[in-house]
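May I ask you to review the protein record following this short note?
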Amino acid sequence: MLMKLQLALLVILLLACGFLYQFTLKSSCLFPHLPPYKSQQGLEALLGHGRSIVFLETSERTELSPLVSCAVESAAKVYTEQPVLLLMKGLNSSVQLPPNSTSPALSLLSAIDNVFLFPLDMKSLFEDTPLFSWYTQINSSAERYWLHVSSDASRLAFIWKYGGVYMDTDVISIRPIPEDNFLAAQTSQFSSNGVFGFLPHHPLLWQCMENFVENYNPNIWGHQGPELMTRILRVWCKLRDFQEVSDLKCLNFSFLHPQRFYPISFLEWRRYYEAWDTEPSFNDSYALHLWNHMNQEGRAVVRGSNTLVENLYHKHCPKTYRDLLQGPESSVTGEQGPGNK
């Protein structure tokens, strides 16, 4: 009798160990941004090749909009062999998700094999860069555009340190970018900072960080972002107007034609929310910047509307379209964020 009882207890113990192992394994897949499943060494290993696709969220927000989800999912769909990182200030290293989080977008993105969620620690990120002294002295509560300025600084430091491609969270990827070192033209002779890519330790980005601090003006929106990129670009390059759809070569990087990311200009951003008789092919584009910062009137992405943006979701981020988009009775607007410029 005693032997049977011991045998039964042993079976129960084995089953419990098996369940615990499976639970741990599943948790590792669903929440890759947390220790012990993703240690700091794991993050460094991901970044070691300088080929990551990087998105940032510099607010404390953890409830992601469908637009952010679509941006990250579409990048993971295009860059299947590269890590796609979403660094969020609202995450921390001690919990899997904030206790009050009910974000279906985080759950959706966590389940994608090549998407990794990590906390964004700005102080650590800015160490060993020109931005560190600025960051440790700034009074962020007094800054009018702090979320945008801190996002501008973070993207420069991250790509300088680790390399890769930075994208705003309102950029939908449609095909791979064939360049390692590039800036993206928003218009002729004016650079965006919403998409750019460089190998680690590129001197142009170091100069951008130095200029960021030396010419810091927090009262002008964009002064630390696209205007800064354009100032440094003009130092490095003798700019000229684009000829047809061809990129400009400048020393060891490229200045990509506006058609690559901005085939619809910021003045025409509403066209994304309209139905087209014949939709554009975007054959010359690598990704599409949706200008969510311009969407102050809260235009929505509505399932069944046959608008251009709905069809882009359906094609390029099908999981987001399936799980997060609602019909006309409960439509979803794009949230304003520092990565939506």
Remarks:
- The first helix runs from residue 2 to 30.
- The CA atoms of residues 215 and 224 lie 8 Å apart.
